């Protein structure tokens, strides 16, 4: 088996192309995923930024929401940025009516948490497990994590708020590393996918 993990990007809405580029730079075979058949073929999946309500609605329409929930429960490595973080939360503090998530991380997120005054900003963020100094965090109407359960590990905070979390094979950041040209967070995720794939093929 080749050592190149196949990592999909859920391509229903949001910044799909930037993630495909970052994943390829991180050594993965990257491809867009919209349908259950495509989901079945990947070793890991990125849930991009965009609009979490739109992505979950489209995931339902494309028939990929339930299969995705099932694969995440089985341990599929997933990485959510911004709206993708919201989708990986077991609970949203302030959901739009009927808003659903995929779940996978025992955390409660607050949408658009950094507020109108500060809709979009950049900040240096220290991410545990990512060597080589802080990453440039690009926050765009970003959520923060209000609270995490015992199984979830906090990887980064900004201004006293949790902005990166990992639980098992699931990783989530409030910010958008795919927009910076710094691929260290994608590499961290690709390493998780590679390790998971190796463990499963034993
Ligand atoms: N940049 C983003 O992904 C914004 C997320 C958006 N505020 C949401 O609730 O889905």
From TrEMBL:
Pathway per the UniProt entry: Cofactor biosynthesis; pyridoxal 5'-phosphate biosynthesis
Annotated positions binding L-glutamine: 50-52, 111, 140-141
Keyword Lyase: yes
Active site, per annotation: 82, 176, 178
Known role: Catalyzes the hydrolysis of glutamine to glutamate and ammonia as part of the biosynthesis of pyridoxal 5'-phosphate. The resulting ammonia molecule is channeled to the active site of PdxS.
Record's subunit section: In the presence of PdxS, forms a dodecamer of heterodimers. Only shows activity in the heterodimer.
Entry protein name: Pyridoxal 5'-phosphate synthase subunit PdxT
GO molecular function: glutaminase activity; pyridoxal 5'-phosphate synthase (glutamine hydrolysing) activity
């Amino acid at each position: 088996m080749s050592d190149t993990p196949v990592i999909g990007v859920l391509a229903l809405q949001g910044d799909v192309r930037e993630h495909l580029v970052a994943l390829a730079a991180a050594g993965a075979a990257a491809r867009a995923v919209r349908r259950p058949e495509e989901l079945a073929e990947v070793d890991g999946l990125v849930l991009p930024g965009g609009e979490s309500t739109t992505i979950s609605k489209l995931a339902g329409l494309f028939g990929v929401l339930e299969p995705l929930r099932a694969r995440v429960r089985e341990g599929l490595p997933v990485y959510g940025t911004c709206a993708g973080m919201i989708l990986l939360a077991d609970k949203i503090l302030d959901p739009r009516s009927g808003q659903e998530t995929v779940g996978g991380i025992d955390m409660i997120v607050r949408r658009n948490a950094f507020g109108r005054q500060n809709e979009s900003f950049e900040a240096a963020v220290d991410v545990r497990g990512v060597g080589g100094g802080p990453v440039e965090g690009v926050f765009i109407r970003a959520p923060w994590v209000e609270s995490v359960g015992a199984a979830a590990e906090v990887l980064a905070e900004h201004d006293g708020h949790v902005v990166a979390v990992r639980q098992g094979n699931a990783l989530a950041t409030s910010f958008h590393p795919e927009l910076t040209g710094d691929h260290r967070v994608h590499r961290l995720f690709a390493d998780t996918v590679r390790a998971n794939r190796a463990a499963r093929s034993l």
